[in-house]
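Appendix B, record 7
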Amino acid sequence: MQSPRAVGKKRGRPPLQPAPIKVAVHNLYSAPAGALPVVKIPKKRGRKPGYKLKSRVLMTPLAISPPRSTPEPDISSIPQDAATIPNSATPQALTVCIYVNKQANLGPYLDRKKVQQLPEHFGPERPAAALQQAVQACIDCALQQKAVFSLVKQGYGSETVSVSASFEGKQHLLSLLVVNSIGYVLRFLKKLCRSLLCDNLFSNQPFQQYNAVSESPEVYEDRRMEA
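Structure tokens (predicted):
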């Protein structure tokens, strides 16, 4: 007897590729509305009544200074003598004091009585002011101002001081060159005294007074020259 064959099977080798399986695709769009799941979207809750907004504090950025191009110099190591000197410590202006020798040999041009009335010294003053006062004193003490005035050497320059003399019914002016130097003042007065034939009338050092009882001006002058 033969065994019964299986229904639906074919003899032979199976195919290399399986037959595609057909899956029934349901049309979702054609499905009824009740079959789709309902997606709930949460509602945005509003603010409760009476809610107050908090004011936001704006944070302002700190002001950042730009970097300096050059660093500050360190003056801690600078010696004291090289530091800047304040105005109060600046040296004073150059001054000179011109002393008058009232016992000098005054020569033929000056009046001794008038010389005795002069101050002991002129200054301390600026060299130009001291020179002006000394030369003006010579003119004022002259027996004839015209003669002494003609012996004064006039100066020319950007800065001058003036001396005056009165003769022939007029006021005459003469300019003296301004030089800020003690040596120039002493040389000018020395030349003027030589012209007046009057030596040792002015000096920048005090004069020792002679004893009027025992010595005359001539004896005092001779003793001073010998010394």
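Remarks on this record: The first strand starts at residue 96 and ends at 100. The chain is about 20% helix and 10% strand.
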